[in-house]
Amino acid sequence: MGVRVEEGTQRRGSRVAAGARRTVVRLTAAGLLAGAAVVAPVATLPAPAAHVVKPDVGTHHVRGIDGNARRDTSALDPAVGENGKPVVPRKASASPFASRPSGTPTPVADSHPALDGGRLAVLGAQESTGHFLVAGVTWASGTSDVVLVSVRIREDGRWSPWTELEVNDVGVSGERPGTDPLTTSGADGIQVRVVTKDGSAPKDVQVDVVDPGTSAADARAGETASPAASAEAATGYENKPNIVTRAGWGADESLSSSWADVSAHLDAMYVHHTAGTNSYSKSQSAAIVRGIYAYHTKSRGWPDIGYQFLVDKYGTVFQGRKDAIYDNPIGAQAGGYNTDTIGVSAMGNFQTARPSSAMLTSIEKVLAWKAYEYGINSLGHTRLLTGSSTGSNTRAKSGTWVRVPTILGHRDTNGTACPGAYLYAKLPAIRSAVHQRLAAARAKWGTVRYTTGTPSVVAVSSSVVPVQWFSRATYRWKAVRGATQYQILTRTASISGSLRDTRMWHVSATVKGTSYTFSTPAGWSRVVAVRPLDSAHRRGPVKTLHRLTRPVNPAVIHWSSSWTRVNGSAYFSGKVYTTVSSTAAAKVYHVKDARSVVVKAEVGPQFGKMRVVIGGVTCGYLNLHSTTRRHAVTVKISMKKPHSGTAVLQGVDRKQKAFSLVAFPRTP
What we know:
single chain; mainly beta; Lysozyme-like; Immunoglobulin-like; Jelly Rolls; eight-stranded antiparallel sheet; 5 helices
């Protein structure tokens, strides 16, 4: 990694001592005035302002098993965190690859308890790197089934024991499979070990090490007090703790991109921990957060840092995800359970060390704040739905509902030691402390209420709902008391996808006006809602505007040979498909959860009926008979329950049938 110097920022080399040193310059003068000793006032320079700090990420590729590393008898030492037990570091020899007194070193066996039933696939050499505070391991997607990943690092000239890194996946587009980050107090060497089920090495294994740089403002992160609570009671923010915002810890926002899915409500709060060092200095905390952010975005390919909040051992609370202070952005705190939850990540390894009282107090403050805002019983339980994150080692199968405490540890739902034995043991006390803080908040401010009114829907034409016949449509609502902006929230699915999951929303836009225009792809369904925001970014109640479906593209319909396409300006969309055959069929595959079938059809005295079959079940008949000939008429049938599968529109008589477009709305 190269060295870069910026105004207010000094990038450190591998031998620079860990931790930023704060220097206070005072200008003093002493004089004797009128026979009395008078000391001139002390002038202190202003505190350094927080600013963007760009991290350096170094990539080291690892291929297969290094021969010398394989001969080292410590190569398969158990990793910290395996079996829930800390490992006592073994004494290191002068050289990790020195010959043993008996002669030729004995190769490491492929079968060993540390391999957890898998086979050794990758063992890198002990590699020197530039200075780094954060590291992690990633590999190409769609390769070997990884069982365990462990690393050991060199700090102050000594190699650490192996540390197991949790493997997880979020499922976002472009994600690179990999591990949670490892934090250090300043390392300059690393070695990686990967175990897979069959011993085949994943493709393109790389170790990324992050030097997050330093800023003179790092030493003062968290020292600025939060603004006083609003005099308007019960907004949910009265007991918000002091939080170092993304600007405060120097986030380079050019690294982030859209990660716009948010939970519709908050049911549970995870206590997490970061793997790695417990010996970082206070001035290193902001840099470690920047390092995790850089690893998550640049190495893992995530749109943002995975945690909503982070807390260091000094009690400083850092904002993680964008909008985490005012919303519930879905993150990566517990693979398979990231919806309806947030994560507070304690900075340190609490499998081997006890959390400080300052850290515990700040964790309690964050949890009490969110519990107050969302009405969570900190001593209660809730149910979470297990997601489909295949690489997150969930204890339950995908699609399973699990009952968990509302404040829980990562290990409660996933196969991991996180948040460590010592911090996990504190969870009962944390729940009780949060309960006491909640009681005090409710006694002082009462029940939380919205600061804005609820939006009212402006009606739309029949050309928009339930079928949005044209690609673009505008949706409107009335202005809301107290709102300065509005979020446009959607749930969208293709014709074969499901819209049943009501646990999340996608933030499509934030606007100042009271309307929004959508372009919806052919065949897709969408739920559109609006949520007001006040001048302090606080969210109001969500109001569903409409549920709509676009007709399928005729090009995806499988037409039997008797159908004929006829073009003409009188027809809807300029064309119509017509037949007089009693055996004619038009098929649409992979229809999901249809509650009605709607066509734009030609009707008249000579027109007949079409049977609608979905998933082998006859759902009804589309009657095109009319006393007068008309073009582009909407004809529909509704079903009492959803139907899925191949949809077939069949002729049932030798009369004429003609339609231009067909849609399968998910609402009656």
